[in-house]
Amino acid sequence: MARERRREAERRRRPSPLAEGAPPTSRSSSPAAAPQPVADRCSPGSLGVGSHVEGEGERRRHGGVAGYGQILGRKTRSGSCACFLRPPPPLAHHTPNPAALVSAYAKSRLLLDALHLFDETPRRDIYLYFSLLAAVSRSASLELALPVLRRMLSADALRPDHFVIASVASVSARLRSLRLGRQLHEHFVVSPYSGDDVVKSSLVDMYCKCGFPDDARKVFDSMGAKNSVVWTALVSGYASNGRGEEALQLFRSMPGRNLFAWTALISGLVKTGESVGAVELFVEMRRDDIRIDDAFVLSIVIGGAGQAVACDILSAREVFEGITFRAVISWTTMVVGEAQHGRAEEALALYDRMVLAGAKPNKVTFVGLIYACSHAGLVQKGRQLFESMKNEYGITPGLQHYTCYLDLLSRSGHLLEAEELMTTMPYEPDEATWGALLSACKKYKDAEMCIRIADKLLELRPKDSSTYILLSNVYAVNGKWDSVAKVRKCTIGLEIRKEPVYSWIEAGREFRLFHAGEVPLDVREEIMGFLEEMVLEMRKRGYVPDTSSVMHDLEESEKEHHLFLHSERLAVAFGLIKSPPGSVIRVVKNLRVC
């Protein structure tokens, strides 16, 4: 007994082997330099650690270490170890299979206990490391994997096999830890498994997710057999990192292109703003008659086509109509896509079909529907939908639902009702909500309400230029030029700068950026001549410029000239000049309020 007490006292003085700078099985002679155990890096509350009062009774009934090992095996296989206490110090040294116990704790969501056991185990083999990594990677505290991985890779005595290396690469990818990934790659190159293509596939994925597709390409080129998974990972890596041209070239050379490769490329192009390439690829996919049955994949493809450009919502709809089974996510994605492109009637008709088909709409479905009603001015239908989501489907409206509903009321001129709803709804209005009401004040020339709303908005973002612009515009619409001057003077005093307005276009494989009132010298003569010719023809057909949107105290002719040099008009003119007849002209603008 005395020997056991001395052993326990020695163990308590021993620092945790997991600290930086010490090998996994080393014993430090300096308590002052004792590192922090992994278990101390987290709080029990954040890991969902439970209570295990019954565990002590389990150990007593099963007679110490041997019996404990037997019951451990059964509990581990069943995934039920919630009644186990962390083994006491003597038992921790003799646990027959600490890796199995770590796995059992992980299955019962007892990560803190797994970390404690790891810290107290004096001899750690590769299986214990791997069990802990698997436990951490399945938890919400993925960052705890970093110290474990670093200690494992720096331990000379450990020899992880190809399966462990591939798994560690996946964890590095999820952590977006390039430093750790490179360290793992160096370890892999000198290991006996350096030619393993499974590990190389994991390294390709890791480099892509860390934002280094060129490094991924080097690993990819060194592979012997390349399956569709690694091809898709590299294509997605280039596309999602803004390298659309290279992604497309790689995709063209890919043998046996499957649906997931198409989806990865379209999704990556849309995310990085390369809408033109995404649309062209989507059209090509439709020509190749790629069959889409997976609901999740369908939602990405439809969403990609819908986000890219309005005209291709028709192609997205064609894909939707061609599938046999439509899950809720498929219906919802299509409803939202129709709504985002101003096709309110189509979105509402699709909703009716969805209900008749027995699919239950969710929160996102109603966001799209109310949004559609807002942009189509369908106040009564919007009210009906807002009420039905609560009464018929038991869905509690969120802030996004209230924001869309408030936008519906504001756009339709129900300003007082919208303001009252903002003060009574169960959420604190955010910037987007106040901004929607402020824009409506400009449209309906309600200067008094505009001042109230602007005050609220300036509390949230006191130096945001768009709020001052909207306030100034409301005064201008009402002809209060003195107030306009005061607002502009205020912005100068607060050193608030208006974000420059610009539009851009891709035409004839040429990219052009246009600022309001500025025409590039190399195309100035061509664009100005074209616009003058177009305006003359338009006037013959009854065109009268609407100068009410020019928020400056100018003569009417000066206001017309101001409209003449609008950034979007310049971009459209360039597109008409440079594009062949019948082609689609796509113009993108950086601001909604100018």
Automatic annotation (TrEMBL):
Signal peptide: none annotated. It holds the Pfam family DYW_deaminase. Residues 1-11 have a biased composition (Basic and acidic residues). PPR repeats lie at residues 196-226, 227-261, 327-361. GO terms for molecular function: RNA binding; zinc ion binding. Residues 542-594 form the DYW domain. Residues 22-52 have a biased composition (Low complexity). Keywords: Repeat, Transit peptide. This is DYW domain-containing protein. It comes from Oryza rufipogon (Brownbeard rice). The lineage of its organism: Eukaryota, Viridiplantae, Streptophyta, Embryophyta, Tracheophyta.
